[in-house]
Amino acid sequence: MQSPKDARHIAETLVERGIAAGATAADALYAGGSSSSVQVRLGEIDSVSRSEGEQIGLRLFAGQRSATVASSDLSNEALGVLVDRCLAMAKEAPEDPFAGLAPGDLLQRGELPSLDADDGHEPDPTALRARALEAEKAALAVDGVTNSSGAGASASANIIALATSGGFSGAYRTCGHGCSAAVIAGEGATMQRDHAWHSAHHLEDLESAIEIGRRAGERAAARLNPTRPKPGKYPVLFDPRVSPGLLGHFTGAISGSSIARKTSFLLEKLGEPVFAPGVTIVDDPLRLRGLRSRPFDGEGVAVSRQELVSGGVLRSWMAESASARQLGIEPTGHAARGVGGAPSASPSNLYLAAGQRSREELLATFPEAVLIIELIGQGVNPVTGDYSRGAVGFMVRGGEIAEPVAEITIASNLIDMFATLEPGSDLEFRRGIDAPTLLVPEMTVGAA
Q: What is the pTM of this model?
């Protein structure tokens, strides 16, 4: 794996070679990474792994035609073959009137903003083993837990470098630390499984292995002896474990490609109220130590904190250059890409801001409600917003969490859900895409 400086030089050189070969425009993305992990089960080491790899992707344009080719061989000879192959493919590709690099005036210039996403900590297999064992031990100590599916600890480092013929070049490094545990409660046909995990850029920010393990055990034990509620209309609360999924449906609906293709249930909603007046949704790529932070987007465009929704009103689409041209707008700094494909719109550190009422107050809003902790299946129509998914959770009565429920479905329409949902005040930044507990006043609950 290269250093950021060397990775940037490789990307710059590859772009220069592409232009010298006859391409009208070019960009190159380097992605390198290393990771170490230890998995344990029932107090014994299950596996120890270490991996390291790097790839570079080259995108060349021949007028309005383009192609992308990737390689894990970064030798001079291999990169020469990569350029020739990519240019030949670009010349045979169909024309795309919207293809091209990002506008030069939007590119990140000067020193890259600091993300504080690299603590420089080197992986220590002994420490990883101890962390994994500690997490599993804490999980198995919870009453009702009968077996372990395993626990693990990991450490990683990643290098990203991007160069374009439009004048951008940049590179950065991030680190990651993680810990997880998964256990089983109960016996025989009544067994229930659950897990817990946490990850952070800085080791000092990683939740303790004991807390992670204990949470996994408590979650599994709480799911024992589930029932099914009587079918009908219920208030539904989405636990922070699953509430970010609603943000995923939202970002898919406001991506430039969905709007350009007219395949979004929010197609005509720009500038209109979509959520309740108190709802704010923010995308912040520059949050220090954020799990999805980035100093520039996948096309080299400068990034900044944006309120996609404020006062419940949809303020912006998310668009990379190609879809922005289709829509007649400027790119919004949301381009993301891998080494093998063209950019597409994707959020960075996205969150739905905390509301005024606590989780406990939301739970007590109605005499009876359903709290969802797990969603199953993909029954969401991105064109109409129709929503129907399998779910697992708990009944809530008088503001108290009661018996677990399983094998149920929850159904509504995302337009109605967004318009009426209320966020709790329990927002925590744990995943990169985050939301607090969300209350939807009415959904249909039935048997799966």
A: 0.94
